[in-house]
Fold this sequence. Notes:
By secondary structure, the chain is an alpha/beta fold. The chain is 46% helix and 16% strand. The protein has an eleven-stranded mixed beta sheet with strand order 3-2-16-15-12-4-11-10-5-9-6, with helices on both faces. Strands 1-17 form a two-stranded parallel ribbon.
Amino acid sequence: xxxxxxxxxxxxxxxxxxxxxxxxxxxxxxxxxxxxxxxxxxxxxxxxxxxxxxxxxxxxxxxxxxxxxxxxxxxxxxxxxxxxxxxxxxxxxxxxxxxxxxxxxxxxxxxxxxxxxxxxxxxxxxxxxxxxxxxxxxxxxxxxxxxxxxxxxxxxxxxxxxxxxxxxxxxxxxxxxxxxxxxxxxxxxxxxxxxxxxxxxxxxxxxxxxxxxxxxxxxxxxxxxxxxxxxxxxxxxxxxxxxxxxxxxxxxxxxxxxxxxxxxxxxxxxxxxxxxxxxxxxxxxxxxxxxxxxxxxxxxxxxxxxxxxxxxxxxxxxxxxxxxxxxxxxxxxxxxxxxxxxxxxxxxxxxxxxxxxxxxxxxxxxxxxxxxxxxxxxxxxxxxxxxxxxxxxxxxxxxxxxxxxxxxxxxxxxxxxxxxxxxxxxxxxxxxxxxxxxxxxxxxxxxxxxxxxxxxxxxxxxxxxxxxxxxxxxxxxxxxxxxxxxxxxxxxxxxxxxxxxxxxxxxxxxxxxxxxxxxxxxxxxxxxxxxxxxxxxxxxxxxxxxxxxxxxxxxxxxxxxxxxxxxxxxxxxxxxxxxxxxxxxxxxxxxxxxxxxxxxxxxxxxxxxxxxxxxxxxxxxxxxxxxxxxxxxxxxxxx
Length: 639
């Protein structure tokens, strides 16, 4: 029992106090000088003073070292100021492509948690020491100014920091970057994006708000490490400056397109309207593919909103040509039906149906044997016969989505026509982007038009998820680094699938968000949000003010043992002279507490973070500001 208590006492540390060891060190130095003086004056022989001199020297060094350690820890409470690096400096820091640079900091150990809990009991300013002491001892010091946000001592519980690296393979499982507004998410993303470009990855950046920092960092990284035409961008408000994107170009089965459209539809309770929407899209897609036409969003909108009649008529003409030969219109039954249609004897389901189509459908239904029919045409006939008013009701949640994506110039950008000679913008899709090794900056412009932005982002992620499926099936792929800022604006089931299964397909995903509540609102519940975030193996937490978000973060970090020393002093006296008693007691206890207290997350300075990476390794770090133009002349930077 006593041995365990001794170990517990040795583990306990209280650096937030005066360096009393310094006084003991001075006393030992005085004793050392005294014994040396006595020996020099020959007042005592060296055989007596020699061992005492050695003892005094050893104790003086020991005590001064203990005092200096206390002072060094106290001097580090001034923290670290923000640091600016250029792309060249970042390149020097990222020496190995298979390592990810996470800024500067240290691994967070239980001793740091102990120091943090002890700081909560005192005013840290009362124990601050001038950083000049650290400079004198050879430390690189740049104290955090009082004007900066956050408490400096959070990074000062460890006086020595170093460049932080983790293996790239540890980030296959996805990374969550969480922090409140202006806490440093953009700076962190800019650093990670620059490293991905430098590694040679295919980089896809989904940015709902058009961050100039992210865009400029990506452009400069491409200039430094890639060819001049590597960077491409898409902006709904400025379509003329970017490329055209076709999110329905790549597929292995026609049903994939319907699934992509379904993924961006608003969820309904029973799922019936979503299922009807999927079926409506699939009927049109199957018909177009059967006619050897490539589906796109504008064609889908045209035939779902205006009616399936043009596709059905073309399909029936082609079917009759194959089944009956070129003279199928001269058959008696067909002639009779054509005459009846012209006279109005056949029921017209919609005004868009031509007289020829009425006759063709009737002939197909009554004169084509069941075993010779085409399933694609059967589904089109079913849609054709469906009550038009009811059909519009069951597709009511589908048409607004398609209208958003096909209106005005946006329709020409998302449904590109390769035969339009007047439009010289490049036509891109994710397969082409991957093969070309491009860096795509996909701005969604969510501030003025959040609905359209959400639809574009969700559709792009659905297409990328389909591309990930192709990579699974075909193999031989190039690594993709996907960065999604403000993930709560665009998250959908395809993105969750990418987080869940994309690692084996070579997709390294980094998602940034502000609060858990934003994600819960998008997905419908906090449980659904937590389930989605459970697919991200790494967590980088900057300053966060939202309590549920803080709780989620500290749950990820886990707990540690915190020691608490309780001291008691009791005095008592009686009326009799000399009847006086005194008792002193000390109690050292240990409890399991959060490794990092939740309220501390709301006090982090800008760009500083706590992170859980590589399967539970906890680190405390800070990102340097990446300023691509910091090393350029003013005239060149402005240009």
